[in-house]
Amino acid sequence: MSTPETRTSPHPLLVAIAVAALIGVPMLILQRYVASTRGAAIALVLVWFALVAVGLLVLVRRNPGLRVPAFGTFVAVLAGTIAIGYWTGFRDREVDEEVITAARAAAPEERKRALDPATGSGDTEARATPSGPVELVRGGFAGADGHAGSGTATVVEQPDGSRVLTFTEFDVDPGAEVEVYLVPGDGTDVSDRVELGDLKGNVGDQQYEIPGAADLGRYSTVVLWCTPFTVRIAVAELA
């Protein structure tokens, strides 16, 4: 007399790990390497969650004992994704620094010298610094790659010859791990860049020190770069 076969179920912990990996790994790939905008990333992630949910429904119908670890993990990962996504991509970070304000616009020769510190390096008169902060160049922010942005970026030279980049009336979409770059051209290529540090906040006045050797005649565009998604948040061409 033959005995019926007994089906052994996987350990609940292994099921939970498998479901988390099934959701998490493709989700990271979709956001980092496939989506080109925040909206596209959200849409792709939602579609992937829906596909995984359908697959899990088929799985638990065949093996009801997997319902709790499978859907428990699904709900936990979904809740964590929503929480992290809101915290990093939708929550404004406001700052209100006391930025340096220029007393006047730089004269042409002052601007030429200050944008490229190597210019006139052997001429004492050409290297004379202004008595107060002067504006060298400025540009308005515009959103990029599906994001919104506004405000003014200004390069100001101080009496000691140092230069700072200020953001005023600044308001751009929030993003995760946003960096401030100076790049050549129109900002579409950030491989050649001067890095000024992490964006302090997506709303409010703020400023950044510019390295003394930076040639602002060449690196004349400000790019706010979202590192995880490898996209631009906003761009300001300085003129």
Q: Can you tell me the CATH topology of the largest domain?
A: Immunoglobulin-like
| Low-confidence spans | 120-126
Portion of residues in helices? 25-40%
Q: So what's the CATH class of the largest domain? A: Mainly Beta
**Alpha-carbon distance between the two ends:** 90 Å
* Shape by Cα distribution: elongated
Counted by DSSP, the helix tally is 4
Report on the biggest sheet: 9 strands, mixed
Number of strands: 9
| Radius of gyration, taken over Cα atoms and rounded to an integer in Å | 26 Å
Mean pLDDT: 88
Secondary-structure-based class equals alpha+beta
Strand content: 25-35%
Query: Which H/E pattern describes the elements?
Result: HHHEHEEEEEEEE
CATH architecture of the largest domain: Sandwich
Number of domains: 2
Please provide a brief summary of the model:
Helices cover 33% and strands 25% of the residues. The protein is α+β, with helices and mostly antiparallel strands and 239 residues long. Strands 1, 2, 3, 4, 5, 6, 7, 8 and 9 form a nine-stranded mixed sheet that branches.
Question: Could you characterize the architecture of this molecule?
Answer:
By secondary structure, the protein is of the alpha+beta class. It has two domains: 12-89; 104-237, Sandwich (Immunoglobulin-like), CATH 2.60.40. Helix content is 33%, strand content 25%. Strands 1, 2, 3, 4, 5, 6, 7, 8 and 9 form a nine-stranded mixed β-sheet that branches. Strand 1, helix 4 (108-115) and strand 2 (134-143) form a beta-alpha-beta unit. It starts with 11 loop residues before the first helix and ends with a strand.
